[in-house]
Design goal:
Elements lengths: L1 E9 L3 E4 H12 L6 H4 L2 H4 L4 E4 L12 H24 L9 E7 L10 H8 L6 E5 L6 H15 L4 E9 L11 H9 L2 E9 L6 E10 L7 E6 L2 E6 L3 H17 L9 E6 L4 H11 L7 H10 L6 H12 L7 E8 L3 E9 L1
Helix pairs in contact: 8-9, 10-11
Length: about 350
């Protein structure tokens, strides 16, 4: 068992409201999608009011090479990661040099050496810090990072472990991809970074009790990236909510097994808000109300889907805006490419 000490988040400076994004999409996709007004309803149904991007709106009207996009990724992923870490480490009583391990999660850009090296150098973290960069986990990355940090902290209880998830989905936009899948993506995705501190010498407000990973065989085609000459092209199957529905009961049952509790005993649902349909699947399978997912809806509304970082924004919202009694249980979950589920049982201390 490990402890979550603190969470910090950061977003880039360019705010785009949903009506503005809808107008841009209308101009861009109209030539290829018949009856475009009908399909633009996805911008209303997405439940997103605004999002933050690392580029201004004019950027989406122009073609960009993979190299140019990746330069922006390196610049902004570092900036946002540093900002999230600074916020995470405020007032926690742990100095930077006390951090022993660093888990870095991102799937929207490429860096070798991995970007955690630049962050370590900028922050002045120890040179013997253990580094674990993770790529390709997509929307499940933040939850997978929680599970990995829990394992690391359980094996080394005195360690302070830093988790960072950062995604710049705006830079993956493909102007020549005029499919409905890309239209849906433009209604949802945003940019952001989150940092979580585990263990160390401080007792945090949340204990991590158990984590479970579940991979569904032969579903790797449902979600991910196609790598093309101009970068990352989104892959998102319409059947994803149905697969989540099939996996939900199994993974939730496994993570609470042996605790003597049911889903009725869960006070906090810290779920990745992949979109409206996915949130509705969560509620239906678990027998919950929309208000049980207040933080997921709030994050989706204000920031959109930031892939791996999103569930950590939901965790931050629960810590800062929702009161929980000591001993209350929480369930943290996200689904991503593989197709995979990452679920963690937590408890307020």
């Amino acid at each position: 068992m490990s402890s979550i000490v603190s969470v910090g988040t950061a977003v880039p400076p360019f705010l785009m409201r949903q009506e503005e994004a809808k107008q841009l999409a209308s101009e861009h996709f109209a030539s290829n999608i018949a009856n475009i007004p009908k399909y633009l309803q996805v911008f209303k149904n997405a439940l997103v009011s605004e999002r933050y991007f690392c580029v201004e709106p004019d950027w989406f009207h122009r073609d960009h090479s993979l190299a140019a996009k990746n330069r922006l990724y390196l610049e902004w992923a570092e900036k946002l990661s540093l900002a999230a870490i600074e916020k995470c480490l405020e007032d926690v009583g742990i100095a930077r040099e006390e951090i022993d391990q660093f888990v870095f999660v991102s799937s929207s850009g490429i860096a070798t050496p991995s970007l955690d090296v630049a962050i370590i150098n900028k922050l002045g973290l120890r040179t013997d810090i253990r580094r674990l960069p993770l790529f390709g986990l997509g929307c499940a990355g933040g939850a997978a990072g929680i599970a990995l940090c829990n394992s690391l902290a359980s094996a080394s209880p005195a360690s302070a472990i830093l988790l960072v998830a950062v995604e710049l989905n705006s830079l993956t936009f493909q102007p020549d991809d005029l499919t409905k899948s890309n239209l849906v993506a433009t209604s949802l995705f945003g940019d952001g970074a989150a940092a979580v501190l585990f263990g160390g010498n401080s007792d945090g407000p949340i204990s991590v009790l158990k984590s479970v990973s579940l991979l569904r065989r032969h579903t790797d085609h449902l979600m991910g990236w196609d790598f093309v000459d101009t970068g990352f092209r989104v892959v998102f199957s319409r059947s994803v909510p149905d697969v989540i529905r099939e996996m939900m009961q199994e993974v939730v049952r496994e993570v609470i097994d042996g605790r003597g509790i049911t889903t009725d005993d869960i006070d906090a649902f810290i779920f990745h808000p992949g979109g409206k349909r996915i949130l509705e699947v969560y509620q239906d399978v678990l027998g919950c109300r929309p208000e049980d997912f207040v933080s997921s809806y709030r994050v989706l509304n204000r920031y959109g889907n930031m892939s791996s970082a999103t569930v950590l924004f939901v965790l931050d919202d629960q810590l800062r805006k929702v009161s929980h009694r000591s001993g209350a249980y929480g369930l943290l979950a996200a689904f991503g490419p593989g197709f995979s589920a990452e679920t963690t049982l937590v408890q307020w201390t």
